[in-house]
Task: inverse folding
């Protein structure tokens, strides 16, 4: 009768021979030496050195001055939608290069204040009002000056007799 199930046969355990122990030990030693050599090469790559040039670090001062010769009569009697533009000069009186930004405040939303680097032209300035978005006026080197155009506009939904005062704040950040 044929067997349906076969029983596994076990082999007799082999004893390690001196040659097999030597081969196994050599393989482990080779793997260890290879690992140490590989990590040493990686260590050398990660730890390279390079000298940096000597750099002098010094403190400085930032100072901005503004000079204006505004004509007050031009600012009065504006009709809705009309603008008045006048120029003023900013100067870097400090001893560090400075990036200049301007923002404006008014006493009412009926007036918009815009600023632009350069002289005032015949056409109205574009862009957001400096009362809502600060305006970059550029970078001034030590001792340098620049002309800025200031525009005040009476907004279209204005009422007769509206008046306000406004101010322009200049701020500077050290530029590299």
Result:
């Amino acid at each position: 009768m044929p067997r349906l199930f076969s029983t596994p046969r076990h082999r007799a355990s082999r004893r390690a021979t001196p040659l097999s122990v030597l081969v196994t030990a050599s393989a482990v030693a080779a793997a260890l030496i290879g690992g140490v050599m590989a990590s040493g090469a990686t260590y050398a790559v990660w730890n390279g050195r390079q000298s940096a040039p000597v750099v002098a670090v010094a403190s400085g001062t930032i100072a901005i001055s503004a000079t204006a010769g505004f004509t007050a009569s031009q600012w009065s009697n504006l009709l809705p939608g009309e603008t008045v533009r006048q120029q003023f000069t900013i100067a870097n009186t400090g001893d560090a290069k400075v990036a200049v930004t301007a923002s404006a405040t008014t006493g009412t939303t009926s007036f918009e204040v815009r600023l632009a680097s350069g002289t005032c032209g015949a056409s109205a300035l574009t862009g957001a009002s400096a009362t809502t978005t600060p305006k970059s006026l550029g970078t001034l080197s030590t001792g340098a000056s620049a002309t800025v155009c200031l525009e005040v506009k009476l907004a279209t939904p204005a009422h007769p007799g509206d008046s306000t005062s406004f101010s322009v704040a200049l701020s500077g950040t050290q530029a590299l």
